[in-house]
Every structure is written in structure tokens, then in C-alpha cells.
């Protein structure tokens, strides 16, 4: 399974260009890795006025042996991680369904998932965050089955590492920790698992939080990007840009927003902000002014962002029509089969099914105030949707085989 997934991902990296950089934030991550290696420090900001979550730059530095200019090494490292995710998805399926065919199906679907494969063809944080998150969920479910506090501790570490790659992982960590006391069993073991997971997350965050406190004299859990992202998500110009249908006009408008609008506000905020937290708070305040200026438009835009989170097709502003149509078909099938599998699993284990639904809803709502694109959803939802799709497929196939089986011959 791992080898198959790796071959597909390496082939995709070679086909799209092992050193090609197309993703807008990719160079920022590479530059952060270079500064780590050359200057033994973490940059205070990149191309935008905040510092990046640390996991990916440190991973790039390690994967490239402090030669981040060798982009193909970073992509290869991400391909290895994403191949491991396919294996873990199969393990989650086996843990929940106790069926080798279901586990194999889930692993194959994850190995061949085109959205997973596309994620390693550039420098993005999603493959790294998705592996940690999937491992964390697998360990969480194992800890709940075996009641072993050591698994809960490591699960907490993995949830925290996922958040250090993508800060939205904090939502998944919160749902995991909050759910343990309601997982059934004796009160003592439930609170032991709760404490162990919390301790794992605390130990993982502590070095980075300590570094931030020494550097800025402020308690910063991951980074200071929240304020800017809220401002971007609430800005009326972003709403206008999101409605542009022509790809060329869309790219030009987006570039103008980043090169003209954002720097103008950033200059004003940087002149008065004394630290990252104050800077982020100022961006939040600017975002609130956007909302207050036209509340009705803000609500309409928020609803559009909410629907965009679950949009089954990729952005027509960035991809050809055929790719958009194919992505819609694949995601629609994943959503339908995943929903069927999740509904059926509710009868078998309502806690796990309810926890997954709570995760999906919480991550969805947490993204709505900010900028939303499909890739933000994938690492949180698609590994589990694949697991439940595999379970549903096995049930459907089994029912079809029973329905088409030849009746016994009576002698």
C-alpha cells in the first residue's frame, strides 16, 4: 500500500515538475526553512505580516538537509508522508470495521485519491498536517477501545503537531479532548485518558510557546495569522473577487489585492502594533469594521464561504472545465458513500460516529469567518470520509452479491 501510494505521488511530482513552485505560499515556507538553516532563527514574518506555523518550515529544513533550494527533496518528503497517510487510513478502517477488505479498500482509495496526490506536487502544509491528524485520530480510537493512557498521550502529541502545521488543527484537538469524558466506561479511566491526551498536547506545544515567549514576551500558541485571515475573509473586495468568472481577471484582481490593498492596511497597523498579538488584534478590529460597515453583505459572504467549504468541485477560476466536472463527480461520490457509511456506523458505535460528525461541524464553522477554499477541508474530512465510504461500499457490494446469487438447485 505504501509503495503504491509513493509511486503515484513521485510520478505526479515528476510530471508536474519536481522543482516547480506554483502555490502562492510555497516560497514563504522555503524561505523560512532557509532562515532556520542559515541564521538559526525563525522569521518574524514572511510575504504577509505574520509568521508561519512552524511545522512545515522545520520539516523542509530536515527533509532537504538544510538545502531548501532543492525543492524536489521537500516534495519527495511530503510524498513519503502522504503515502504513510494512505496506510494509516487503512488502519483506521480496520480498527472501526474489523474487516481486511474494508481496510484494503480504504487504503487503496487514499493511495489513489487525486486531491491527496495533488497536494504533494507543490509545497503545502496540508500533507504534513493530514498525516499527524490521521495518526492522532487512529490513536484516539485505539485508546478508547483499549483504555490505554499511553495511546491517548501520543494521540495528544499528534493532534498538537497537526495544529503546528495548520492552526485549525486546534479545533480537532479540542473536540478530541472534550469528547473523551463522554466516551463511556469508568469515570476514572475516562479522566485518565483525558489527562493523558491533554498532557501530550501540552508537552508538544511547550517548546514552541516557550520560544515565542522568549522572543516576543507574549504567550502565542502557534502564530499570529488569525487577525489577518479574518480581515481578508471579511473584506468586501474578497467577496467581489470571488465572483469573478474569468480566470485571467480573477488572478489580476487577487494580485492587486495582495500588492495594493493589504500592504496599505499593513503599513498602518505595523506603525502602531508593538508585538504579534497586538498586530493580530488590530487586524481583527479592521475585520470587524468591514462587517459593521455592511452587515447584510457580510452575512451573505459568510453564507457563501460556508457553502464553499463543502463545494464538491475545485475552483472554476483556477482549473479547466473538465477538471472541475471530474472533481465534482468524485467528491459527490465520496460525500454520498461517506454519509451512508457514517449513518450505518452510528448503529454500531454512536460515540465514534457522533465524534466524527462533531469534528466535521466544528472544523466547518471554525473556517467560516476566514477565507475558505477546498484544500482547507480535505485534510480534516477526506481521510475519514474515505474510511466510511469503504465501509459503505463493502455493505452495498455484499448486498448486491446476495441479490444476484443463483438460487439453490432443488433435487
Labels describing this entry:
411 residues, mainly alpha, 0% strand, globular
Structure summarized in a few sentences:
This protein has 411 residues and is mainly alpha-helical. 77% of the residues lie in helices and 0% in strands.
Structural overview:
By secondary structure, the chain is an all-alpha fold. It is 77% helix and 0% strand. It contains 18 helices and no strands. It has helices at 2-16, 26-39, 55-63, 71-97, 100-112, 114-119, 126-146, 149-165, 169-179, 187-216, 226-234, 236-242, 247-272, 276-293, 295-309, 321-348, 350-367, 374-404. The N and C termini lie far apart (47 Å). The model has no long low-confidence stretch (mean pLDDT 94).
How many β-strand runs? 0
Helix residue percentage: over 70%
Query: C-alpha Rg, in Å?
Result: 22 Å
Query: What's the shape?
Result: globular
Terminal Cα span? 47 Å
Order of helices and strands: HHHHHHHHHHHHHHHHHH
Arithmetic mean pLDDT: 94
Into which percentage range does the β-strand content fall?
under 5%
Largest sheet: none
> Number of DSSP helices?
18
Secondary structural class:
mainly alpha
Stretches with pLDDT under 50, minimum 5 residues: none
Q: Secondary structure elements and their pairing?
A:
Elements: H1 2-16, H2 26-39, H3 55-63, H4 71-97, H5 100-112, H6 114-119, H7 126-146, H8 149-165, H9 169-179, H10 187-216, H11 226-234, H12 236-242, H13 247-272, H14 276-293, H15 295-309, H16 321-348, H17 350-367, H18 374-404
Amino acid at each position: 500500500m505504501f509503495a503504491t501510494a509513493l509511486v503515484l505521488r513521485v510520478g505526479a511530482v515528476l510530471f508536474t515538475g519536481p522543482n516547480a513552485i506554483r502555490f502562492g505560499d510555497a516560497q514563504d515556507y522555503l524561505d523560512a526553512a532557509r532562515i532556520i538553516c542559515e541564521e538559526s532563527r525563525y522569521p518574524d514574518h514572511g510575504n504577509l505580516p505574520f509568521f508561519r506555523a512552524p511545522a512545515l518550515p522545520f520539516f523542509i529544513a530536515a527533509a532537504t538537509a538544510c538545502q531548501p533550494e532543492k525543492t524536489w527533496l521537500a516534495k519527495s518528503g511530503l510524498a513519503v508522508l502522504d503515502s504513510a497517510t494512505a496506510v494509516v487510513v487503512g488502519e483506521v478502517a480496520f480498527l472501526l470495521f474489523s474487516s481486511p477488505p474494508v481496510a484494503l479498500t480504504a487504503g487503496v482509495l487514499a493511495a489513489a485519491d487525486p486531491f491527496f496526490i495533488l497536494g504533494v506536487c507543490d509545497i503545502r502544509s496540508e500533507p504534513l498536517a493530514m498525516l499527524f491528524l490521521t495518526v492522532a485520530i487512529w490513536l484516539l480510537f485505539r485508546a478508547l477501545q483499549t483504555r490505554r493512557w499511553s495511546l491517548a498521550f501520543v494521540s495528544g502529541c499528534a493532534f498538537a503537531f497537526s495544529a503546528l502545521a495548520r492552526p485549525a488543527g486546534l479545533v480537532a484537538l479540542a473536540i478530541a479532548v472534550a469528547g473523551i469524558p463522554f466516551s463511556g466506561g469508568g469515570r476514572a479511566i475516562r479522566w485518565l485518558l483525558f489527562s493523558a491526551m491533554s498532557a501530550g498536547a501540552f508537552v508538544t506545544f511547550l517548546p514552541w510557546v516557550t520560544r515565542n515567549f522568549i522572543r516576543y514576551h507574549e504567550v502565542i500558541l502557534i502564530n499570529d495569522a488569525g487577525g489577518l485571515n479574518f480581515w481578508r475573509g471579511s473584506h468586501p473586495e474578497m467577496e467581489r473577487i470571488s465572483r469573478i468568472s474569468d480566470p485571467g481577471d480573477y488572478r489580476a484582481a487577487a494580485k492587486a489585492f495582495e500588492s495594493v490593498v493589504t500592504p496599505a492596511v499593513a503599513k498602518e497597523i505595523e506603525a502602531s502594533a508593538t508585538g504579534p498579538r497586538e498586530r493580530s488584534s488590530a487586524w481583527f478590529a479592521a475585520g470587524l469594521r468591514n462587517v459593521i460597515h455592511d452587515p447584510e453583505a457580510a452575512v451573505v459572504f459568510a453564507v457563501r464561504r460556508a457553502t464553499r467549504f463543502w463545494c464538491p468541485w475545485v475552483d472554476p477560476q483556477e482549473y479547466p472545465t473538465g477538471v472541475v466536472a471530474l472533481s465534482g463527480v468524485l467528491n459527490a461520490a465520496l460525500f454520498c458513500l461517506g454519509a451512508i457509511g457514517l449513518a450505518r456506523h452510528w448503529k454500531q458505535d454512536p460515540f465514534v460516529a457522533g465524534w466524527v460528525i462533531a469534528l466535521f461541524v466544528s472544523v466547518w464553522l471554525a473556517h467560516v469567518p476566514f477565507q475558505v477554499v477546498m484544500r482547507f477541508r480535505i485534510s480534516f474530512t477526506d481521510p475519514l470520509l474515505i474510511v466510511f465510504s469503504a465501509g459503505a461500499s463493502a455493505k452495498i457490494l455484499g448486498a448486491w452479491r446476495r441479490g444476484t446469487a443463483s438460487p439453490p438447485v432443488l433435487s
